[in-house]
TrEMBL record:
Residue ranges of the region described as Disordered: 1-78
Catalysis: reaction(s): N(2)-formyl-N(1)-(5-phospho-beta-D-ribosyl)glycinamide + L-glutamine + ATP + H2O = 2-formamido-N(1)-(5-O-phospho-beta-D-ribosyl)acetamidine + L-glutamate + ADP + phosphate + H(+)
Annotated PurM-like C-terminal domain residues: 593-748, 1003-1133
Top-level taxon: Eukaryota
Taxonomic lineage: Eukaryota, Viridiplantae, Streptophyta, Embryophyta, Tracheophyta
Keywords: ATP-binding, Glutamine amidotransferase, Ligase, Magnesium, Metal-binding, Nucleotide-binding, Purine biosynthesis
Protein family according to the UniProt entry: In the N-terminal section; belongs to the FGAMS family.
Stated name of the protein: phosphoribosylformylglycinamidine synthase
Ranges annotated as spanning the membrane: none
GO cellular component terms listed in the entry, alphabetical order: cytoplasm
EC annotation from Swiss-Prot or TrEMBL: 6.3.5.3
Pathway the protein contributes to: Purine metabolism; IMP biosynthesis via de novo pathway; 5-amino-1-(5-phospho-D-ribosyl)imidazole from N(2)-formyl-N(1)-(5-phospho-D-ribosyl)glycinamide: step 1/2
Length: 1517
């Protein structure tokens, strides 16, 4: 069986062991705690909660030194402390639950010249020189060795039960139980000393479970009690290091564990079989393996790993005989390598090499050309000559989409159609940035002109093949597009969208889905794509530190009347971003001779081969293995480190060393290097590129799309500066060439040249030698010919007996309509602290916001807004109407934020079509014509975008086209971010609903949600028949916003009028009495037609004024209902009552699909709790015991301020908002990295306070904050410095989220006197913060109560209940020792607790988002100076950062929030402590002379100062 038992030459050396284990006489097991799922699965309501708290212990057993198991020691087992599994954001059981139809898919590679430039160690990250294994070296390297450490369990009990249920249904009912463990495969170059082993042991261990890690497999010991069983092990492929290993090894290097060169984790499953049946056959084993691993990134381990060494040798560069064989040679290599050359390409390149260059190309050159000149990269279709039904179109698609920008010459566009992002003129803003970027320095406010930028792209093909990594790298590539704009820019926030086929979700209500449809085995299922792709994009953004604040979701799968099946088998994974750029950096510099070509970022791996070409094909046309090779993998932490280097350069202003920057994406180096050297040219040495896999061929190094890399142009004199920036952020840097003016890309292999020199051979020719103008410049325009396809349609036919309630049950269940809770809860929506409006609104925080808003800075009120419009189903009937509606929807979403002007609105246009198939290209052209005309009338414009024009997949011999889609992302500047209106109804019985009908009485149902819910498409779809009226309506509503006359607003789009009204009531947790006149259009038409419109809630007393102002603007508005405080919905149409239901009952229907999807992603018991609790939710009844105020101006403008160190580690992402909060309280925040402290560039003696910030240090691969804590605990000078700071009575510390987890691991809270790792109980008594009860990352604006405590930062805040952002995956407080918990409670050392709507302390989910006992959200030290808390006060210290607050607070949105008081308290405490020390200093002055010698002997001056004060006190008395 392929990939199961047979050794594959791509995989590592292995030690043989049987796969099926039976009747094994192993010694009795000590692994009694291994998780087992019983054969009889209990009813769902009896399932235990996911993560049962581990047993509490008092005393750890003695630790023993580790020795690798040998024959002589096989009877002895060395016990280690166990570590929990990581996997923060993505629920691990979700990875198990989808039938992926695949197993390990190995390939064979051969080569001759190896590349050996490995990734440098973090201590020497700057690349210098060239290395090659072809050059003889003295000495022999020690033979590598791999040791294993096993840990139980991998899956917790509830996860295992769910997996067993899946396995029994999809594999075999003969499997009656499952047990799991994880295995750490550790590559050691040399043996570890006992001290180093102890360090590694601590890293891999959970502090309170010493019996759950050992050197032998727990599962193999269990075999003796389960003779009818089989072990299946899966893990990452060995030919490249995973991000897990990269981060784990980085931790080890920071602790001087240089012996550890790789650390990979595999998962092991013991399948317990029914004794009455036979063993599993190979097909069943295949099915199970497919269920629990991803064949693209993982494989089955049939035997124990003994080495990571691979037998693969690099593929040599080959010559393609075009001179001898002509186009036949190109056609052959085109198929073999998946180059996606079309007929015009074959002709052009045959002529280029045979007749122009007159030599044979290399495989590297052809691969390079295929990627950089693919449709994906060069947009041939948009630039091409289009011939429709024999008629040549007068304009290209590019000319059409650019025409609105040209039609408005006096516009605010500063970057349009010429960079990785577009940008518009912004505002002067007070940006908080380091005074000396890239070094240890204070942060201060600097006035800069900051423009607003936007970018958007899709990653559709990769998400179809491997949804999670595909979406990860889609988000990562778009992040690099953002920061690689101009000469470097600033990442702020992102948007996302997903379009998939029919979900076919088990137990769901979806009568519109066709059960006869089959799905291609080479692609993931629509359900898996929706869950895994959203997981991938969310996890990447969470770890990077980019909030996701807007999005869309829809699904579609239907056979149309013409017989065509239309469905998103090839999905849409849309990723957009709004950011900022310093106006001084909007233009890239041109290359000049002598400039250095530099690559910074992660190492090269064999990933993403040929992605540009593969993305340009219909799925199924390419070879399956080539498709899998084309998908990349992401490393969010590396992306963040890379961004920090770029940001430091951008923050240097006019001193920015970057001349030009391009991100590495499709085509890898093939694209990015040629782009940055064009047109001057350069010679590039392939061996200068940093690699992470020595088996890479030249082709793979040059063409693979490994992520997290940028190419830069810098001047030689800037090299040392850039090296220092990279060293500080621990990012590799390599100078790979120099601009030489040759006008060519010349790629040389210095290793091959050295080999030839040593062996007396003639020097090899360059690997690549091409004139840039001939492969990257103006190339012949392509011609595309296609025909129109006649539309076959018929009117919507719904049975007369269908009631409004019947229709609502269907429509509210559609993924495009239903709650998006399943997407919004798992994404960080608050990181950066610059989010003024994200998805959730109202007292219940439902995901219904129309517009997203960011602030430019923490101190100004200017910002930017963005909104999305897309209506693909309408395009099946009328592509022109679809384009206009997409624009209209974007504007009717954008209108709820106050913008600078409508004419300032620009947009990204993203096109997703199967454009080269008949009918689709013509539809797309028609849509572009309508789009241009509509935008010109509105005075707005497209200024960028992307296209994906192969949106089709083959299935059972049929080409299934996706519905064509145009996504419009409108963005604009905001003069006042507080002037934003949300959809939640707010006025109770005083509210009136107004309807602005942009359809002017027309009620067309074609392409509507109602039609889809009844498996139809209809024949007449909505449109914008009066574009100028839309413009006037936009401007009229903007005027009402300025005067604060609108309390709530919502657009009418998917689902029609009735759905929009219901959503407003859902969000406001109130009721509505609707009275609608159908105007003879029909009941369903009046309620469900998706004609554009606006709904406004206004106060009854303002009604006449509002109507007058609208009429003055030429806008008609009708009163359609009354808001009610009682949560009931009444619907009267034409005087007849058609609906009377409780708001909560209708909301339950709207939430149902989302909760079903949630059940696939987090613990089902948690999903049930939230679902049931939502029925009875009320508004939070927060109250304050004080009035928030701004910090005294004198403190803010003082020439000397107390210094606070904002400390961050690799992967931290919450440092800027933390610095802003302290700055707003009158501190001087300093940017301090752990590398600064380790290098001695800064000392904690200089600071009165330190803040450990939030994020994912080292991606939390060895548990949250474990690597960060180890870098302190196991560096003696550093731990001493931290302990000295901790003990000084004039200091304070704050740890938030990841910083909170760190402070617990350091033993700083609750302190040694109570119970911590610093006390007598050691780690076994130390409270920890472990995985959330739900098993998933959770981001919520949650309620907390501040109680009485000694915490200095909560002085005067006691008794307050209020909201706060919470965003973490491991926030559940766990107390191994119950006595410590009792002491914490009795001593009031838990100052912040989660509470419910009634302000009661709670453990109930989701009020308590992580399951912490007694609602504990924070811990402090007994003296109150040290505080650790999981929620994020630094992300909501201004009221505009609050997503909702009770009107009873009567606080201005532009003012400070209650959480600023925390930081102000710290400032006051420091001032008071400073005054006390000054007083005692005066008294002790006479004693100081006598003790100067004593003071000089102390490392800590304060320790010497104490006896002086004591004696001075005695003198004064």
């Amino acid at each position: 069986m392929r990939g199961w038992k047979r050794r594959d030459q791509r995989e590592p050396s292995i030690e043989r062991r049987p796969v099926i284990l039976a009747d094994t006489h192993a010694r009795p097991s000590r692994a009694a705690t291994a998780t087992t799922a019983a054969a009889a699965i209990p009813p769902s309501h009896l399932l235990p909660d996911r993560r049962r708290s581990p047993p509490r212990r008092r005393r750890p057993p003695p630790r023993a030194a580790y020795r690798p198991p040998t024959a002589s020691s096989s009877g002895k087992r060395n016990v280690f402390i166990a570590a929990r599994s990581s996997g923060l954001g993505r629920s691990r059981i979700a990875q198990q639950c989808f039938q992926q139809h695949h197993i390990c898919y190995p390939g064979v590679r051969r080569a001759s010249v190896p590349n050996v430039r490995m990734l440098p160690a973090p201590g020497a990250l700057v690349s210098r020189g060239v290395d090659s294994s072809l050059v003889p070296k003295t000495g022999n390297a020690s033979e590598a060795g791999v040791i294993q450490l096993y840990r139980i369990p991998y899956l917790q009990e509830s996860e295992t039960i769910e997996l067993l249920r899946q396995v029994q249904a999809k594999v075999s009912s003969n499997i009656v139980g499952i047990k799991t463990e994880q295995c750490f495969n550790i590559q050691l170059d040399n043996a570890l000393t006992p001290e180093k082993l102890a360090t590694l042991q601590w890293l891999l261990a959970e502090t309170y479970e010493p019996d759950k890690l050992q050197a032998q497999s727990f599962l193999e010991e269990e075999i003796s009690r389960s003779p009818y069983s089989v072990i299946v092990e899966v893990g990452p492929r060995m030919t490249f290091s995973t991000a897990f290993s990269t981060n784990a090894v980085s931790i080890c290097k920071s602790l001087s564990l240089m012996e550890v060169t790789r650390l990979e984790r595999s998962r092991r499953y013991l399948l317990c079989l029914d004794p009455g049946n036979g063993p599993l056959d190979e097909s069943q084993l295949n099915d199970f393996a497919a269920l629990v691993h991803d064949r693209m990134t993982e494989c089955v381990y049939p035997n124990k790993l003994t080495s990571f060494h691979s037998d693969v040798v690099p593929e040599p560069v080959r010559i393609v005989p075009v001179i001898e064989r002509g186009r036949e040679a190109l056609e052959e290599i085109n198929v073999k390598m998946g180059l996606a050359f079309d007929e015009q390409d074959i002709k052009y390149y045959t002529h280029l090499f045979r007749d122009d260059i007159k030599r044979n190309p290399t495989t590297v050159e052809l691969f390079d050309i295929a990627q950089s000149n693919s449709e994906h990269s060069r947009h041939w279709f948009f630039n091409g000559k289009l011939v429709i039904d024999g008629e040549t179109m007068p304009k290209t698609l590019f000319q059409l989409v650019k025409s609105p920008l040209k039609a408005n010459p006096d516009n605010n566009s500063v970057i349009g159609f010429k960079d990785n992002s577009s940008a518009i003129k912004g505002y002067p803003a007070n940006q908080l940035r380091p005074t000396i970027p890239g070094s240890t320095s204070p942060l201060s406010v600097m006035m800069r002109d900051l423009d607003i930028l936007f970018t958007a792209e899709t990653h559709n093909f990769p998400c179809a093949v491997a949804p999670y990594p595909g979406a990860e790298t889609g988000a990562g590539g778009r992040i690099r597009d953002t920061h690689a704009t101009g000469k470097g820019s600033f990442v702020v926030a992102s948007t996302a969208g997903y379009c998939v086929g029919n979900l076919r979700m088990e137990g769901s209500y979806a009568p519109w889905e066709d059960p006869s449809f089959s799905y291609p085995s080479n692609l993931a299922s629509p359900l898996q794509i929706l869950v895994d792709a959203s997981d991938g994009a969310s996890d990447y953004g969470n770890k990077f530190g980019e909030p996701l604040i807007q999005g869309f979701t829809r699904n579609f799968g239907m056979r149309l009347l013409n017989g065509e099946r239309r469905e998103w088998l090839k999905p849409i994974m849309f990723s957009g971003a709004i950011g900022q750029i310093d106006h001084a950096h909007i233009s890239k510099g041109d290359p000049e001779i002598g400039m250095l070509v530099v690559k910074i970022g992660g190492p090269a791996y064999r990933i993403g081969m040929g992605g540009g070409a593969a993305s340009s094909m219909v799925s199924g046309q390419n070879d399956a293995e080539l498709d899998f090779n084309a998908v990349q993998r992401g490393d969010a932490e590396m992306a963040q480190k890379l961004y920090r280097v770029v940001r430091a350069c951008a923050e240097m202003g006019e001193s920015n060393p970057i001349i030009s920057i391009h991100d590495q994406g499709a085509g890898g180096n093939c694209n990015v290097v040629k782009e940055i050297i064009y047109p001057k040219g350069a010679e590039i040495d392939i061996r200068s590129i940093v690699v992470g896999d020595h088996t890479l061929s030249v082709l793979e190094i040059w063409g693979a799309e490994y992520q997290e890399q940028d190419a830069l142009l810098v001047k030689p004199e800037s090299r040392s500066l850039l090296e220092s920036l990279c060293e500080r952020e621990r990012v590799s840097m390599a100078v790979i060439g120099t601009i030489d003016g040759c006008g060519k890309i010349v790629l040389i292999d210095s290793a091959a040249m050295e080999h030839a020199k040593i062996n007396g051979l003639p020097p090899p020719t360059p690997v690549e030698d091409l004139e840039l103008e001939k492969v990257l410049g103006d190339m012949p325009q392509k011609t595309f010919e296609f025909k129109r396809v006649s539309l076959v349609s018929e009117p919507l036919d719904i049975a007369p007996g269908v009631t409004i309630m019947d229709a609502l049950k269907r429509v509210l269940s559609l993924p495009s309509i239903c709650s998006k809770r399943f997407l919004t809860t798992k994404v960080d929506r608050c990181v950066t602290g610059l989010v003024a409006q994200q998805q959730t609104v109202g007292p219940l925080q439902l995901p219904l916001a129309d517009v997203a808003v960011i602030a430019q800075t923490y101190t100004d009120l200017t910002g930017g807004a963005c909104a999305i419009g897309e209506q693909p189903a309408k395009g099946l009937l009328n592509p022109k109407a679809m384009a206009r509606l997409a624009v209209g929807e974007a504007l009717t979403n954008l209108v709820w934020a106050k913008v600078s002007s409508l004419s300032d609105v620009k947009a990204s246009g993203n096109w997703m079509y199967a454009a080269k198939l008949d009918g689709e290209g013509a539809d797309m052209y028609d849509a572009a014509v309508a789009l241009a005309d509509c935008m010109i009338q509105l005075g707005i414009a497209i200024d960028g975008g992307k296209d994906s024009l192969s949106m089709a997949a083959q299935c059972d011999g049929e080409v299934v086209k996706a519905p064509g889609n145009l996504v419009i992302s409108a963005y604009v500047t905001c003069p006042d971010i507080t002037l934003t209106v949300t959809p939640d109804l707010k006025l109770g019985n005083d509210g009136v609903l107004l309807h602005i009908d942009l359809g002017k009485g027309k009620r067309r149902l074609g392409g509507s949600a109602l039609a889809q819910a009844f498996d139809q498409i209809g024949n007449d779809c909505p449109d914008i028949d009066d574009v100028p009226y839309l413009k006037k309506a936009f401007e009229a509503v903007q005027e009402l916003l300025s005067q604060r006359l609108i309390s709530a607003g919502h657009d009418i789009s998917d689902g029609g009028l009735i759905v929009s009204v219901l959503e407003m009531a859902f969000a406001g947790n109130c009721g509505v009495k609707l009275n609608i006149d159908s105007e003879d259009s029909g009941l369903l038409q009046a309620l469900f037609a998706e004609e554009l419109g606006l709904l406004l809630e206004v106060h009854l007393k303002d009604l006449s004024v509002v109507k007058q102002k609208l009429e003055a603007g030429g806008i008609s508005a009708n009163v359609i209902g009354q808001v009610t405080a009682s949560p009931d919905i009444e619907l009267v149409v034409d005087g007849r009552l058609h609906l009377k239901e409780k708001t909560s009952d209708l909301r339950d229907i709207w939430e149902e699909t989302s909760f079903q999807l949630e059940g696939l992603q987090r613990l089902k018991s948690c999903v049930r709790l939230e679902k049931e609790g939502l029925k009875h939710r009320t508004s939070p009844s927060w109250s304050l015991s004080f009035t928030p105020k701004f910090t005294d101006e004198k403190l803010l403008t003082a020439s000397s301020k107390p210094k606070v160190a904002i400390i961050r580690e690799e992967g931290s992402n919450g440092d800027r908002e933390m610095a802003a909060a302290f700055y707003a309280a009158g501190f001087e925040p300093w940017d301090i990295t752990m590398s600064d402290l380790l290098a001695g560039k800064s000392s904690l003696e200089e600071y009165c306070g330190i803040a450990f910030v939030g994020g994912f240090s080292y991606a939390d691969v060895l548990d949250s904050a474990k690597g960060w804590a180890a870098s302190i605990r196991f560096n003696q000078p550093l731990i001493q410095q931290f302990q000295n700071f901790y003990n000084r009575p004039d200091t304070f510390s704050l740890g938030v989220c990841n910083g909170c987890q760190l402070m617990a691991l350091l033993g700083w809270v609750p302190g040694s006197d109570v119970g911590s790792s610093l006390g007598s109980g050691g780690d076994m008594s130390q409270p920890r913060f472990i995985h959330n009860e739900s098993g998933r990352f959770e981001c919520r604006f949650t309620s907390v109560s501040i109680g009485t405590s000694p915490a200095i930062m909560f002085k005067g805040m006691e008794g307050s209940t209020l909201g706060i952002w919470s965003a973490h995956g491991e926030g559940r407080a766990f107390f191994p020792d119950e006595n410590v918990l009792a002491s914490v409670v009795n001593s009031n050392l838990a100052p912040v607790r989660y509470c419910d709507d009634a302000n009661n302390i709670t453990e109930v989910y989701p009020f308590n988002p992580n399951g912490s006992p007694l609602g504990i959200a924070a811990l402090c030290s007994p003296d109150g100076r040290h505080l650790a808390m999981m929620p994020h006060p630094e992300r909501c210290f201004m009221m505009w950062q609050y997503p909702w607050y009770p009107k009873e607070w009567q606080l201005e949105k532009c003012g400070p929030s209650p959480w600023l008081r925390m930081f102000q308290n710290a400032r006051e405490w420091v001032q008071d402590a400073g005054s006390s020390l000054t007083f005692w200093g005066r008294i002790a002055q006479t004693e100081l002379r006598r003790d100067r010698v004593a003071m000089s002997l102390h490392e800590d001056p304060w320790m010497a100062f104490r006896p002086c004060i004591i004696r001075a006190l005695a003198v004064s008395e």
